[in-house]
Amino acid sequence: MSGPASVRFEDVTKRFGEVVAVDSISFEVEPGNLVTLLGPSGCGKTTTLRMIAGLELASAGRIVIGGRDVTALPVTARDVAMVFQSYALFPHMTVAENVAYGLTVSRVPKAEVRARAERALELVGLAGYGARLPSELSGGQQQRVAVARAVVLEPDVLLFDEPLSNLDAKLRRRVREEIRELQQKLGITTVYVTHDQEEALAVSDRIIVMNQAVIAQEGTPRQLYEEPASRFVADFIGDANLVEARIRAVENGHAQVEAGGLGLQLPARGSAAGPALLAIRPRSIRLHPEPREHAVRVRVDKATYLGGHMEYEVEAPLGPLFVVDLAVDRPLPAGSDAWMTLAPRGVTLVPA
Amino acid sequence: MLNRPLAAWLAAGWAAALLLPWYMLDDGLFSFVWLTEGYAGDRDYAPALFQVLWHERYWLAPLGLFLALPLLAVGRPDNGRGTGMLLVAAGAGGLFWLLLQGFGIDHRGVSLALLEPLVPEGGRQYGMGWGASLVALAFLFFITQGLAAHGLARGDVFVAGSIGLVVALVAAFIFFPVLTILSSALRDNQGALAPFLFLDKLFDGRIWGTACLTGGGRCGSAWNSLILAVLTGLSTTLLGLAFALVVTRTGFRAKRMLRTLTVLPIITPPFVIGLAIILLFGRSGAVTQFVADLLGLDAGRWVYGLPGILFAQTLAFTPIAFLVLIGVVEGVSPSMEEAAQTLRADAWTTFTTVSLPLMRPGLANAFLLGFIESLADFGNPLVLGGSYDVLATDIFFAIVGAQYDQGRAAVLAIVLLSFTLMAFWAQQRWLGRRSYATVSGKGDSGLPLQLPPALRRLCYVVVIPWAALTAVIYLMILFGGFVEFWGRDHTLTLRHYIHAFSVVEGEHGLVWSGAAWNSFWTTLQIAAISAVPTAALGLLTAWLLVRQSFGFKRAFEFGTMLSFAIPGTIIGVSYILAFNVPPLELTGTGIILVISFVFRNMPVGVRAGIATMSQLDRSLDEASLTLRANSFTTVRKVILPLLRPAILAALVYSFVRAMTAISAVVFLVSANYEMATTYILGRVENGDYGLAIAYCSVLILVMLAAIGLMQWVVGHRRLGRRAPSVASAAEQTS
């Protein structure tokens, strides 16, 4: 291994006939980081991943991996490995043969192939499964074979294309933790594609949110959640109530905001006085059965009991709001009035 | 640096030019007398270099220049654009020169003024041999390597080379012969340009005459062919629909037996059905005699002509329509019909307003298939035609008959070709995309609607007698070989089998003394030899179509499937016209038979490959590629092992189809290479029906055995849990 490599996109565009799948995007993945490409289906994230792999060639722009320009290099000549959504395990080969495949076709000596394949299987906790056929393994085990088959080559970059989408919900949480642990243990540069924002928040060093063929925002999970750069990102990462607000004044980077009778002081994030958009996380809204200071009166339209928390839909002066409340012991009945305040965190101005 | 495949092809090109005999050898491709009989010193055996140096064939010299060009790329970056340009220039230039001198100088001398300075008095040359062919291939791969460097097939050398190979082969063995027909239609039989003669022949009354409408006289063969094709298309579609409905939408008990019908057209040698019809309904046929005795009528020859051909074609092609329409009827989602019924439609209304309209594209498709098959059919009209001339047989008689008129054959071929191409084009264009297949990948738990009672009874009334008739016909074929002379003398005998297939104990072991053994072994041999390239080329093409993307893919697909639409008679005529003279001098060899089978049957392999490959997850290939395997390794280690059943199916079906082929073969056989079907044709023409039928029965058994063996092997292999319904997919391709 030549040590972890960086991945750099410079104004990369991919067109399929008339359709622009990826529109002049640029980003850089630091060596050893796990970066997630996140976005709704059709946003261009998988195409971007396939361009890193070389399964698609860019129509314009430059792709650089570990300082080497690979834009025109075909897939075989790039030092990347990929874990596919369907795992793509070769059904006619045993688990060991699958894992050894990349080494065998690279003409690595046989003894070394066997040793490295065994070590890779050990690494994913499947030592002793080598003689089985992929069809004799469970979905989670197949997924781990796919990971072992990719890491055994010690690639510059490891790619994951929605690796958890074929697993059930409980397994998904466990496997994503395993992937993250393995990635950190090996210190391998990794690009991970998913449409599940929770998964992205859980595993990533950084997240690149894509929408309609362009990058909507790039940052750490916390930056994306707390400081969404646009209406789309605020809505896509975690739920958010997006409401119209008004900035009365901006002073020292702090904005005096007024929304539906509530006065707030928030980081201005570059906004100027005038109409503005406010993103309010459902958990940042507090509902009280009795009136209190700085609270506005709302009407509970709908109340749903979900075991661990309550979900409400309320009609407020700011408009209809979606609220998550942990106080399940004293639920507010639908049709009643309540008073609402905002928590200090989880409310942010969204740049227009 | 030169990459490995390029270096290999460069070396092969040079070796071919320096070491291998340049011209076609009279002693056959696999004879090595040239090594001992003079080699470089002999005018006929010398490699290109010595042809130039010692035998005054100076026109070959420029090829060396083009072979040398790629050497300039040594030391340049591997996939740079400059290298690409250089390779394309070398390859294209080399191929161009090869073709120019090949067509410009032939066995009669030089015909192209441009080349005259290079050709000494009396200089001439023969067809391409090992050396020339390999050099041509090397030039071809220079081009594809160069284009790959420019981004063809995403820079993949193996893919680019495969595309180039398929395109070149299809061009050489489908388009070039067909174009030769076109050009020879424009000439008189001495080779001079004669456009008026062409028009004269094109509007000949024998082709377009309408005398039969006004009473008295015959109609032209073009009209006859069209009328027959339309009627056959209609009858096979309706019968096929009835069969499909009975099998899928009723509680009929013998469904499995009906389904076996679909295998019949694959294993039926030509003439068989026609012969059986003659034996039953001919002048001295069993049924005719019976009815004549009963009613006291004079036994007539009514079966010869339109009724007989239509009858035989309907028998022969109904199973094809049946096969297509089973898929169509099953493709109508039961949920649609259930939805209609919950909306208060009764069974009859549901059928006419929902089910039938949804099947419409499938019905049109079945009709066009029957139409094309009927136009191309050669065997049945030959046996049953009487005075009813159709284009396919007219072409045959124009070439082999007393008239020997190449130009007329070419003109007839053009008319026939334009009919079939129009139908093929309509089928691809209009129906290719407009299928209402309503079954998605998702489970559909609905129950298919049972037919309304009246319709069900109608279907039974049609299907049961027809199935019985088909059974009788095939039993007849088995039985007919065991009687003295059908219709006159029904004493049981083994005479025909003994005559054809006797083996006697001679001085030096067994002697295959039967009259049919010679053609039988030749047929088995040629069919087996051609099965391998057919399957290989078909699957390679399928892989390119399913897995690769390149700019002209639709045109590529159309071109490769085209040979299916070109009637065999036309392939036969065009091959003798195109490959009788240098540069490709193949007539009279076994190779021309093999080549004609390969290109006639390649679409079978393509379809089998497409059906199986679309079931294989595409990310398997991509996974292999990301694991450092190049596309050649990927094909070898991942695709081929998973395609094993499809390979087997393609091999067996191309073998079987080669055994039953007649229409192209009849033009291409020679004394050394007589095929079973042409031997049978000879017996039929002599009225020796017993022997012909005995031979057909043997062929049917051989083919049944081959197919049975294949299904047994496919059925007995296991691949983890993934043993998809490949066998059935392959069956549907024929």
Distance between the termini of chain B: 47 Å
Number of separate helices of chain A: 8
Number of E strands of chain B: 6
- Overall tally of structural domains of chain B: 3
Strand % of chain B is under 5%
Order of helices and strands of chain A: EEEHEEEHHHEHEHEEHHEEEEEEEEEE
CATH architecture of the largest domain in chain A: 3-Layer(aba) Sandwich
Q: How would you explain this protein's 3D organization?
A:
With 352 residues, chain A is α+β, with helices and mostly antiparallel strands. Helix content of chain A is 24%, strand content 37%. Chain A has eight helices and 20 strands. In chain A, strands 6-7-8-3-9-10 form a six-stranded mixed beta sheet, with helices on both faces. In chain A, strands 13-12-11-14-20 form a five-stranded antiparallel beta sheet. In chain A, β7, α5 (169-186) and β8 form a beta-alpha-beta unit. The longest helix of chain A has 18 residues, at 169-186. The two termini of chain A are 45 Å apart. Chain B has helices at residues 4-19, 33-36, 48-54, 61-68, 81-104, 130-149, 157-185, 195-202, 205-208, 211-214, 221-249, 255-260, 264-267, 272-281, 286-295, 306-331, 334-342, 347-376, 379-384, 391-400, 406-431, 453-480, 495-501, 517-547, 553-565, 568-578, 590-613, 618-626, 631-642, 644-660, 665-668, 676-685, 689-715, 726-731; strands spanning 105-106, 109-110, 483-485, 489-492, 504-506, 509-511. A two-stranded antiparallel sheet of chain B has the order 1-2. Chain B has a two-stranded antiparallel sheet with strand order 3-4. Classes of the chains: A alpha+beta (352), B mainly alpha (734). At the A-B interface, β6 and α2 of A face α28 and α29 of B.
